[in-house]
Amino acid sequence: MKTRSVSTAAFIFAWPFLLLASHSLAQEPALSPAPESPSSRGLETPAAAVATSPIAAPSTQPNDAEMMQQMMELSKLNENHKLLGQLAGSWSYTVTLWMAPDAPPMKSAGTETRRAMMNGRYYMADVLGKIKMPGADGKLKDADFKGMSLEGYDNAKKKFVSAWIDNMGTGIIMLEGSYDEAAKTFTYDGEEEMMPGTKTKVRQVIKIVDKDHHTLEWYEDHGGQQVKTMEIEYTRKK
Questions:
Q1: Has residue 43 got a pLDDT over 50?
Q2: Could you give the CA distance from residue 164 to residue 174 in angstroms, rounded to a whole number?
Q3: I want to staple 236 with a disulfide (CB 3.0 to 4.6 A). Which of 116, 122, 171, 212 is the partner?
């Protein structure tokens, strides 16, 4: 077990250099047998053939030093990562759910703790609360709800990215989005598949009200129209 751990760590440390090595190998021209010259077959080489022989175009691939420099730049923190830091801390929330357009909304409450990871490159949120679920008798009862999100800003994609999991399913919802500075709003888009063959486009909108309050709205595509199915109001714990 100890040997395996050391090998894994060594691989993680060395992967950028392995990537550069594979890139260098990919740039090496393949060796092939020299073509048989006309003179070796007793033929003269036409002057026109010599004059019009193709010249290899210069390579536009970045060299190893350029690739390493680009990788280092993409790994740096920037203002987009700081924007996510606005949501760090401990929060109390109230959630309103609409299970159907004509059904009365269901309300519940819980807490969320969001903390920085990898020196602020990512933010992890742990969610605890209650949710109404049908029991064996068909009546709605309170059930424990646990969820977790991981958010960051991908410098290569130039997009905010988010992943969500909870104890009510086994899938991972992946979202990508942007930030509107004027509206102080994050908008994420993606898909969810609650049941096989039922992929649904979804949208998550997080609006910063002030340093102690923000809201989250969740929309689902129903017949080509976005329908709000959830709204959460957060208040920072003192």
A1: no
A2: 7
A3: 212
